[in-house]
Design brief:
Layout lengths: L4 E3 L7 E8 L4 E12 L1 E5 L5 E3 L13 E7 L9 H10 L4 E2 L4 E2 L2 E5 L14 H12 L18 E2 L9 E2 L2 E8 L2 E8 L5 E3 L6 E3 L14 H8 L10 E8 L3 H18 E2 L9 E10 L3 H24 L1
Parallel strand pairs: 6-9, 16-18
Antiparallel strand pairs: 1-12, 2-3, 3-6, 4-18, 5-9, 7-8, 10-11, 12-13, 13-16, 14-15, 14-17
Helix pairs in contact: 1-2, 4-5
């Protein structure tokens, strides 16, 4: 009988992670580059996504896979950063062959961090290219948690205004069961509060006037009732990676199931002020059942969100 055990996200083969950021702008990007054209799916639940090339992952579209995923800050301005990832891949002959060149297929989602640092500094093509170089550096052990890359400008608990929110960041969690591996990488930039899905303890979120976490889970509803809400600056972006073999139709369903991890760890979640998105990718050929991988995806995503909060608050 196989026993589930925790592993490092980077133990899953088939991809590389790189980061680039700007401390003055308090913004950055995190790229996941795949060793081969990789099947992927996506599920967008929030009402305010900023994304690029996600229609490629619709099962009726022709693309069988993609070459990279970029998570970034900068809101819709940050979508320029994928151009740098495409430049990096094209220079190396990676992409969909159209005869005269190869066109890299790169999906991107951006979160809103414009209020954190200098809002005139946003992820751009140069930053996306730098993140790829970081992923390519054999001497670099990729960070998968903390205030790095797309996680640099992340905050949570914003429904009482930015003065009462708390910093967040990047988080990761991965498990194995026998030969099967499932992991999550997530940039947590939520309107809601963050909870540990194992203990139900609040880890981060809206603060009171004394700077301490508000204990009541109803504080969001109190704020929304007492004043006209002016919620902005959100969106949690996640990637599920598994070595189980799936095509993009199943991966879209796995991405959908992984949103249960968002619901377990973020309250409230999937509001119209969020752009919550989850990608799911298959990097291996191990046989796996979607009814096992989907719930595992939700589990590791919830733990990764908690990991993001813990890594910054420590």
């Amino acid at each position: 009988m196989s026993v589930m055990k925790e592993i490092k996200l980077t133990e899953i083969e088939g991809f590389r992670i790189g980061h680039a950021e700007n401390q003055e702008g308090m913004t950055g990007c995190t790229v996941m580059l795949f060793d081969a054209c990789t099947p992927a799916g996506v599920d967008v639940r929030g009402g305010g996504p900023a994304s690029r090339e996600t229609p490629l992952l619709n099962p009726v579209m022709d693309a069988k896979g993609i070459h990279g995923i970029l998570l970034s800050g900068g809101s819709a301005f940050g979508l320029d950063a994928a151009g740098g990832v495409m430049k990096y891949l094209e220079e190396r002959g990676i992409g969909f062959d159209v005869g005269i060149t190869k066109v890299p297929l790169v999906c991107q989602s951006s979160l809103f961090d414009l209020m954190v640092g200098d809002m005139t500094i946003r992820p751009d093509a140069a930053m996306g290219y730098a993140a790829c170089l970081d992923a390519d550096d054999p001497d670099t052990v990729p960070e998968t948690k903390g205030a790095v890359g797309a996680g640099l400008g992340c905050t949570v608990g914003k429904y009482r205004g930015p003065e009462f929110c708390m910093p967040s960041g990047l988080g990761s969690y991965a498990v194995s069961m026998g030969d099967l591996q499932v992991g999550a990488l997530v940039a947590v930039n939520a309107l809601g509060d963050i909870y540990d899905p194992e203990t139900n303890k609040k880890l981060a979120g809206v603060k009171g006037a004394d700077g301490k976490l508000l204990a009541s889970p109803l504080s969001y509803f109190d704020a929304a009732y007492e004043q006209a809400p002016s919620f902005s600056g959100n969106t949690t972006l996640g990637i599920i990676v598994t070595n189980a073999e799936f095509e993009k139709t199943a991966l879209n369903k796995i991405a959908s199931m992984a949103h249960n991890g968002y619901a377990a760890a973020i309250r409230p979640v999937h509001t119209m002020a969020d752009g919550d998105s989850i990608y799911a990718v298959s990097t291996g050929k191990v046989k796996g059942d979607i009814n096992l991988i989907g719930p595992l995806a939700a589990y590791v995503m919830g733990r990764a969100i908690a990991d993001a909060a813990k890594s910054v608050q420590q």
